[in-house]
Amino acid sequence: MNTNANAANRLPLAGLLALALTGFLAILSEILPAGLLPQLSEGLGISQSLAGQLTTFYAIGSVVGAVPIITATRKWKRRSLLVLTVITFVVFNTITAISSIFILTLIARLFAGVAAGVVWGMLTGYARRMVPENLKGRAVSIAMMGIPVALTFGLPLGTFLSSFIGWRVLFGVVSVIAVILIGWILWKLPDFPGQDDNSSSSSSVSVWSVFRTPGVRPVLFVVLTWMTAHNVLYTYIAPLLASAGFNKIEFILLVYGIASIVSTFLIGRLIDRHRRPLVLGSLAAFIVVTLLFGLSSSLSVGIYIAIILWGLVFGGAASLLQTSVAEAVEEQAVDIALSLSSTTWNFAIALGGAVGGILLTSAGVSSFPWVGFVLLILALLVAWKAKKNGFKSK
């Protein structure tokens, strides 16, 4: 009996790490141009501002692609869809590596972004189906680990390697990693059926019906406000830290990234039993971060505390929010709910960048923490009220 119980409570790490590498690949494909703007500008014969649109088009693809594709492929076997998605990364990252035509490169980035949107729409659901009920949160945390790892180590390592091998070879290396990942997926990931549209339970599932499900809208609102606040600060982290006297931010970002990874492990241990207090505590802690940025602009100790606390808050955010929206719906609606969440998340990234840009030219960098403060107060209030649906107590 004990042996069977231990087996039931054992996480399928090889499969979950394949999902984590898929997330790592999606994030790395998105952020690489941010560290390669001068090389991309020279290689494609364009300005750095135009080179920056390679990231913008990837984000657009993620926003517009997730919901319709996840909805249209609900009957597909899950592993087949995931493999096809990774093949899409191979194709369009390879086109990015060899293309000398800017418009073609933009199109490649758009479709790579569509693939990323599909990844975020199915990754959480896949991880949850691999484990029993009492391990679903931990499984999601492992599957989402690729996000902080890519942000912490992927971009700086990629930027460093590009100085030796060039940006084209670097994108080729990313494609090779994707090919290896396909083999890993086929080897270690179990396959799951899609939803049978002939069943009565699935025939009533639509994007609108999922959106109207009690609990979904509060979670989506928290995703929007939390991630907009995060991206107002993170997108413009360089001028924000420069205003506090920090001109070399590499070490600070490394500290932030390590705190994010630590948070992923901590949240993974606690999420299945304490998801609601973790959400509320994370939002409250992020409010403290905005206050530290707003009130400690000339105090290095306050800034370092804010950075560490911010990393701890952000590392587990994806697991907490994706798990919350998945728990708010019936099993047959999980993938659609997650695609709505990922679309909202990517929209918040774009919105945070846009709002931050307007604030930077109008009110100045000192306004960033206070805008984040207001957004997070709204998020905390909505999360607090959504006790019955959305952010339920376990």
UniProtKB/TrEMBL annotation:
PROSITE patterns: MFS. It is a multi-pass membrane protein. It is found in: Cell membrane. Pfam families: MFS_1 (PF07690). Residues 15-390 form the Major facilitator superfamily (MFS) profile domain. Its main location: membrane. The keyword Glycoprotein does not apply. The chain crosses the membrane at residues 50-70, 82-104, 110-127, 139-159, 165-187, 219-237, 249-271, 278-295, 301-321, 333-361, 367-384. Gene3D superfamilies: MFS general substrate transporter like domains. It comes from the Bacteria. Keywords: Cell membrane, Membrane, Transmembrane, Transmembrane helix, Transport. This is MFS transporter. It comes from Paenibacillus dokdonensis.
